[in-house]
Amino acid sequence: MPDTPLRLLIAASGTGGHLFPAIATAEKLVQANFEIEWLGVPDRLETTLVAQANYPLHTVSMGGLQGRLGLGTLRRLGQFTKAIFQVRRLLKQGQFHGVFTTGGYIAAPAIIAARSLGLPTVLHESNALPGKVTRWLSLWCTVVALGFEAASSSLPKARSVVVGTPVRSQFLVPPVDGLADLEIPDHVPLIVVVGGSQGAVAVNQLVRAAAPAWFEAGAWVFHQTGSNDPDVDTLSHPQYIHRPFYDNMASLM
């Protein structure tokens, strides 16, 4: 444990898949005497979750670079370049010692800015099959931490180490009255369906098709639909509970 706190900028944005492993990592790093600040995008999920975790949040406006070439591409490239310089200025002014990221759009300007300043960068990849962004960014990173050993075959030129996927502390202690806020009775069969923090149309459709059989069997269903589900109100039943997003998943385990 360092005597003088090390200042770390965590870049994680947009989805639970990016944010929750980063939050779990931050919990442990704070215990190891790190000072944590966060880099995200305005009006995304991190504006809620990072505030709840009490980390200072800095935001830069940007999106992905995918799509057809055109004026929109030039605008996104300009936005991306601006984001790199904004993060670079943040890292210098904040006297950060390094960057940790879990991938996604925000990872690119964070990693490039950090490397331009000679700062170490760690990228955590939770998936067994890394996406295009991770495969490209891995070449810029000091080390890539992997959730699955299988991912290393997709990153042959990166320095990688298998660490697993960080788990938040709430999953490591028995829940106390965890289902009280959902009004789910104790000792009933419970089916939990999660299509990610943004939801998944195919998963949502499958749940609604299968739900009558589950109800008939006596099961209760908790369904995280995502915030953009157009059919969210098409299923109503006393044993069916849906939320666009639910951050206390440990209580459902």
Keywords:
6 helices, three-stranded parallel sheet, 253 residues, 2 domains, Rossmann fold, alpha/beta, 31% helix, seven-stranded parallel sheet
Description:
With 253 residues, the chain is of the alpha/beta class. The protein folds into 2 domains: 6-171, Glycogen Phosphorylase B (Rossmann fold, 3-Layer(aba) Sandwich), CATH 3.40.50.2000; 175-252, no CATH class. It is built from 6 helices and 10 strands; from the N terminus they run βαβαβαβαβαβββαββ. The protein has helices at 16-31, 46-52, 71-93, 107-116, 132-137, 201-216; strands at 6-11, 34-40, 57-59, 98-101, 121-125, 143-146, 160-162, 190-194, 220-224, 240-243. The strands form 2 sheets. It has a 7-stranded parallel β-sheet, with helices on both faces. It is globular. The mean pLDDT is 87.
Question: What topology emerges from the helices and strands here?
Answer:
Blueprint: E1 6-11, H1 16-31, E2 34-40, H2 46-52, E3 57-59, H3 71-93, E4 98-101, H4 107-116, E5 121-125, H5 132-137, E6 143-146, E7 160-162, E8 190-194, H6 201-216, E9 220-224, E10 240-243
Helix pairs in contact: 3-4
